[in-house]
Amino acid sequence: MLGLDKKDMKFLLIVIFLTLATPILLQPFPEGSGMAQFNAGYPDLMQRFAIFGIFAIGFNILFGLTGYLSFGHAAFLGVGSYSAVWMFKLLSMNVLPGLILAVIMSGLFALVIGYVSLRRSGIYFSILTLAFAQMSYNLAYSVLTPITNGETGLQVTLSDPRILGQQVSESGNVPGTHFFGIEMGAAQKIAVGSWEFTFSAGYYFCAIIAIFAFYLSLRIFRSPFGLMLRAIKSNQQRLNYTGLNARPYTLAAFVISGMYAGLAGGLLASMDPLAGAERMQWTASGEVVLMTILGGVGTMMGPVLGAGVIKYMENIFSKINEQVLHQWFGWLPDGLESIVIWAAEHFVGSGWHMTSGVLFMIVVIFLPGGLVEGGQRIKGFIKNRRGGDSDDPEHHPKQAPHVAE
């Protein structure tokens, strides 16, 4: 069904269910309780889970299958954002044309960068992609200011010469983005007892696209094209000896990965019509590398899990301030409370990077296959306790990820 075998179809259905049920699953604690701080079921964050999940899935097609480690994927994220915002300014606030242009422009940009960068492999390829991304970042701040609006960033204004749709909303402001009349900012809140669940049109739009992107990557992983990419990662030199030219395959993987990044950038602009050069900075490229390695390189679900963990920490742990800590540890004696809060402050709030860094080190040292490997170990342990054999639902490498030589 849909070109998938029974096991993969079951896996896809589970992913669809979890994605559509996210507003409920991420709101486990009742409003007003002390643990409500850890709820993540609000539209802004859920949209970022889906969008950066797409970004990481696309990066995993390149890094996970070919072993080519790109440090410049944020360039395609930025190109996608700028393309979408320009479409909003010139044509319509409907997100569909903007997303189409974002994917096309990022794909063309990836074709150019990939054609040059893939003449080298290993660390030289990584440095080339980083150089191109930093060039793009600096150009967006300087030479390309008429297109990117420099430091201020490109945004939709009332003076835009938009061809289709409203120029001004009924409230006198810039009209919001929509999908054929469905406002991306629309949301419905449903109270169930002490819980309040928010169902956002913007999130479900991103979620449906994320499901399609996941399905497409699953087909790529299981296709002959995916097998060829695995062969390149395994031993490209030996593959060349057979008479096969690996470069067209790696270039195709690079372009597809760049188009995924452009789609993610277009979705970011669709949820908030603003594009800035900071989306092209090297830190954004490094973030998607962390997401993929943390979740599990070469696995299907790993990059999505990694993206979710990173974005959860960035948005939830960073909001835990000294006042919240005093509420949590106020029952301790004064001296001990001060010591505990002083220690905790280094791992939350502005120090949330410390927590993510420690988690990343633990995963790299003890779980080279990422969080997916951790889940598989737990599953195998439970099955062994029951006397059964563990079943690996998807291919994933047991060795640490490496850069292609």
Helix/strand layout:
Layout: H1 6-20, H2 22-25, H3 43-66, H4 74-90, H5 95-117, H6 122-141, H7 145-148, E1 154-155, E2 178-179, E3 182-183, E4 187-192, E5 195-200, H8 201-222, H9 224-241, H10 247-271, E6 274-275, H11 282-295, H12 302-315, H13 322-329, H14 334-344, H15 352-366, H16 370-385
Antiparallel strand pairs: 1-6, 2-3, 4-5
Describe the structure in brief.
With 405 residues, the chain is mainly alpha-helical. Helices cover 62% and strands 5% of the residues.
Describe it for me?
The radius of gyration is 22 Å and the shape is globular. Helix 4 runs antiparallel to helix 5 (95-117) and helix 5 (95-117) packs across helix 6. The chain has one domain: ABC transporter involved in vitamin B12 uptake, BtuC (Orthogonal Bundle). Strand 4 (187-192) and strand 5 (195-200) form a beta hairpin. The strands form 3 sheets. Strands 1-6 form a two-stranded antiparallel ribbon. Strands 2-3 form a two-stranded antiparallel sheet. It has a two-stranded antiparallel sheet with strand order 4-5. Helix content is 62%, strand content 5%. It is built from 16 helices and 6 strands. With 405 residues, the protein is mainly alpha-helical.
